[in-house]
Design brief:
The chain is an alpha+beta fold. It has a single domain, classed as Sandwich (Immunoglobulin-like). Strands 1-2-6-5-4-3 form a 6-stranded antiparallel sheet, with no helix packed on it. The longest helix is centred in the N-terminal third of the chain and has 13 residues.
Length: about 90
């Protein structure tokens, strides 16, 4: 816990975004049809109803219908389809 507090204080002091310094995921959602995820580590599960993604701080579950990964690179991806739920699960 102390380590996170120190990193957060440093991030605030140098006025840098936390996603850059701490490597936390950045999720951008456009309506119910698109989600962009940055700073992910891997894809754990991929179906048309559930996409589970591993990040540095835990997992992200995208739940919906007709889900598809439209593109991905080493650090970002775009998910399309009908997104109904985004869940965040702590822990590695």
């Amino acid at each position: 816990m102390e380590k996170k507090n120190l990193k957060n204080r440093i991030t605030d002091a140098v006025n840098m975004p936390k996603d850059v310094i701490l490597g936390v995921p950045l999720v951008t959602v456009t309506g119910q049809s698109e989600a962009y995820i940055e700073n992910y580590r891997g894809i754990l599960e991929y179906t048309d109803k559930l996409i589970r993604i591993q990040t540095k701080i835990g997992r992200i579950h995208i739940i919906g219908k007709n889900l598809q990964i439209e593109y991905y690179t080493n650090d970002e991806m775009k998910i399309g389809g009908r997104i109904s739920v985004i869940e965040y699960h702590e822990g590695g």
